Amino acid sequence: MKLEGLSTAITGGASGLGLATARRLLDAGAQVTLIDLPSSDGKQVAADLGAAAQFAPADVTDSEQFAEALDAAHERGGLRGVVHCAGAGRRMRILDKDGKAGSVEDFEFVVKLNLVGSFNALRLGAERMAELDAVDGERGAIIMTASVAAFEGQIGQINYTASKAGIVGMTVTAARDLASRGIRVNTIAPGIMDTPLLARLREDVRTALEASVPNPSRLGRPDEFGQLAVSMLENGYLNGETIRLDGAIRMAPR
Ligand SMILES: NC(=O)c1ccc[n+]([C@@H]2O[C@H](COP(=O)([O-])OP(=O)(O)OC[C@H]3O[C@@H](n4cnc5c(N)ncnc54)[C@H](O)[C@@H]3O)[C@@H](O)[C@H]2O)c1
């Protein structure tokens, strides 16, 4: 898919991996619609990115809001690419320190945000792409964001792992499901990326995290995620795949 002039939507686009992807997409000549919470900096961020960027506020777990935000992208000549980055974790244990059962609300919150949000990105994104004419045999492409926690979840990540493993599981199923529509689906599973999520960490914790990455021994740069996302959108033969972007890290239990 040639991105020049195409309309794309990036959820979680006001910050971190989503924002870095928006910058890469703009460099490739695409139009970008940043979809993020109304409380985010999305409006200002989009204004700073220039005329090819716009902000559409939405909570990705709210189908109506999310559909409206995608429409704002679709109105710019047809939605061809979705990069779904909105997501977060919330630490929890199966049993708390007193041996009490962990919070089902914390489990449901993260599964709803990460997994149901991703299903919304698939179904609402594909609904719009399916209306378009195919170009070189394809109508569009969707990228979801998992995590290495989908494969080696750490202690305290039971809810996050469940949601991210669900995204990895959905990837090939979604690619098959949407094949007849000419829509590709791929997923990026990042390791430890240097986004605002990690900016709050103490310097010694950050240094230890960097040392745990085999090569290169540093945190991932958000731009490296954006670079892969753009490549996944562009490469018409890449489909149904999850790619780890992690410097070969394999997470320890804690
Ligand atoms: N940073 C990492 O090390 C890392 C590693 C693996 C996976 N990830 C995943 O990458 C994705 C992006 O993370 P990031 O590091 O860029 O985080 P970030 O906090 O910098 O950005 C996430 C963005 O998502 C938005 N968001 C949160 N809930 C939302 C909702 N309900 N609706 C719409 N927008 C919402 C936030 O406002 C924020 O702008 C997440 O899915 C995260 O789980 C991050």
TrEMBL record:
Record EC number: 1.1.1.35
PANTHER family: 17-BETA-HYDROXYSTEROID DEHYDROGENASE 14-RELATED, SHORT-CHAIN DEHYDROGENASE/REDUCTASE
GO molecular function, one term: (3S)-3-hydroxyacyl-CoA dehydrogenase (NAD+) activity
Superkingdom of the organism of origin: Bacteria
EC class of the enzyme, as a word: oxidoreductase
Domain Ketoreductase, first and last residues per copy: 6-195
Entry's family note: Belongs to the short-chain dehydrogenases/reductases (SDR) family.
Source organism of the structure: Rhodococcus erythropolis (strain PR4 / NBRC 100887)
Protein name per the record: Putative 3-hydroxyacyl-CoA dehydrogenase
Keyword presence, Ribonucleoprotein: no
